TrEMBL record:
Belongs to the diphosphomevalonate decarboxylase family. It comes from the Eukaryota. InterPro entries: GHMP_kinase_C_sf (IPR036554), Mev_decarb (IPR005935), Mev_diP_decarb (IPR029765), MVD-like_N (IPR053859), Mvd1_C (IPR041431), Ribosomal_Su5_D2-typ_SF (IPR020568), Ribsml_uS5_D2-typ_fold_subgr (IPR014721). Transmembrane segments: none annotated. Its EC number is 4.1.1.33. The lineage of its organism: Eukaryota, Viridiplantae, Streptophyta, Embryophyta, Tracheophyta. This is Diphosphomevalonate decarboxylase. Performs the first committed step in the biosynthesis of isoprene-containing compounds such as sterols and terpenoids. Keywords: ATP-binding, Lipid biosynthesis, Lipid metabolism, Lyase, Nucleotide-binding, Steroid biosynthesis, Steroid metabolism, Sterol biosynthesis, Sterol metabolism. Residues 15-84, 98-215 form the Diphosphomevalonate decarboxylase-like N-terminal domain. The keyword Lyase applies. It comes from Brassica napus (Rape). Residues 229-386 form the Mvd1 C-terminal domain. It catalyses: (R)-5-diphosphomevalonate + ATP = isopentenyl diphosphate + ADP + phosphate + CO2.
């Protein structure tokens, strides 16, 4: 390995995903192994996504990470990665946004990906890294979410998926997306599903080491591209109970969770796979809505109870239910993660426009409700930037 002050880097962009059959509960907290399978839809990478730049240099003295710094395309003297002499193009990190990498989730991901690193050579930049070098070379990581972090919009899903994906590119790791998903899963369970676009299933697996607890693609993003996903941001405040601690409490105290994981979800997974395969919107809606409602019922069945939805969320549910009933056939599916924000899936663009009009009418921005913005996105694939 040459001793010059080179920096070698990769930038990737990864969308978040929204579960339509929810993951809630772990059977192994360290390896992040779930109590049931789950199914999600991956959003368009240009809407809710994480952009991560990973850099390696012999001059870096330790692994470091910055989250949600301001981004800029060109390096300058004030950049945190200030060891580069030539002007290079990468995401610039601004001071004070460094986060600790000491947590076991980061450490597990970094260890796993490093052990799979391959040889890398970039003659133009004078970079030559051998497989064995990855254990001792340090990394700088800059990550940016284009949406609120920890507000129940699956920021950790996009974040860990992007981290693992960008490191795999940097280190020339030759694993397929399913194998990478098993690494991302150790950062955050839902992250494993963001390694694919379209509809994705996270198989809970049965092995103790978690090697078969991986994500697989059920259908790509073109399979059902009539669907339009609208996220009604009811509140972008950080949630009081994180998904991790919430689901731990549910596993410890909710009998409904046991019933759901063993009796309900296995059947729903089969039905949902069928609905997706056949683009059967009525079944898709029925399964998504009831699964979301059961997940929130499990939260209420937890002791002490966890309230993720608020009055505005409940009003959105009523509105959609009434609309679907009055049309005779479902037009919109809803699902809510660990927060009050509504994820609404319209059967096509025409319905999406009507839905947006309805939302703006019933929840006008700057009214006494706290719902302020809407994000529209089609489902699409994971995209490598730059
Ligand atoms: C309600 O993946 O955030 O969004 O594995 O502890 O990091 P950890 O939890 P996380 O939980 C997501 C829960 C959910 C449902 C889902 O995405 O399936």
């Amino acid at each position: 390995m040459a001793a010059e002050k080179w920096v070698y880097m990769v930038t990737a962009q990864t969308p978040t995903n929204i579960a339509v059959i929810k993951y809630w509960g772990k059977r192994d907290e360290v390896r992040i192994l779930p109590v049931n399978d789950s199914i999600s839809v991956t959003l368009d990478p240009d809407h809710l996504c994480t952009v991560t730049t990973v850099a390696v240099s012999p001059a870096f003295d330790r692994d470091r990470m910055w989250l949600n710094g301001k981004t800029k395309k060109h390096s300058c003297e004030k950049s945190v990665i200030h060891l580069v002499t030539e002007s290079v193009s990468y995401i610039l990190l601004i001071e004070n946004l460094e986060i600790s990498l000491s947590g076991s989730r980061y450490q597990n991901c970094l260890r796993e990906i490093r052990s799979r690193g391959g040889d890398v050579e970039d003659r133009e930049k004078g970079v030559k890294i051998e497989k064995k070098d990855w254990e001792r070379l340090n990394l700088h990581i800059a990550s940016h979410n284009n949406f609120p972090t920890a507000a129940g919009l699956a920021s950790s899903a996009a974040g860990f998926a992007c981290l693992v994906f960008s490191l795999a590119k940097l280190m020339n790791v030759e694993e397929d997306p399913s194998q990478l998903s098993a690494i991302a899963r150790q950062g955050s369970g839902s992250a494993c599903r963001s390694l694919f676009g379209g509809f994705v299933k996270w198989k809970m697996g049965s092995k103790d080491d978690g090697s078969d607890s991986v994500a697989v693609q059920l259908a790509d993003e073109k399979h059902w591209d009539d669907l339009v996903i609208i996220i009604a941001v009811v509140s972008s405040r950080q949630k009081e109970t994180s998904s991790t601690s919430g689901m731990r409490e549910s596993v410890e105290t909710s009998l409904l969770l046991q019933h759901r994981a063993k009796e309900v979800v296995p059947k729903r997974i089969v039905q949902m796979e069928e609905a997706i395969k056949n683009r059967d919107f009525a079944s898709f809606t029925q399964l998504s809505c009831t699964d979301s409602n059961q997940f929130h019922a499990v939260c209420l069945d937890t002791s002490p109870p966890i309230f993720y939805m608020n009055d505005t969320s409940h009003r959105i549910i009523s509105l959609v239910e009434k609309w679907n009933r009055s049309e005779g056939t479902p037009q919109v599916a809803y699902t809510f993660d660990a927060g009050p924000n509504a994820v609404l899936i319209a059967r096509n663009r025409k319905v999406a426009v009507q839905l947006l009009q309805g939302l703006l009418y019933y929840f006008p921005p700057k009214s006494d409700t706290d719902m302020k913005s809407y994000v529209v996105g089609d489902n699409s694939i994971l995209k490598e930037a730059g």
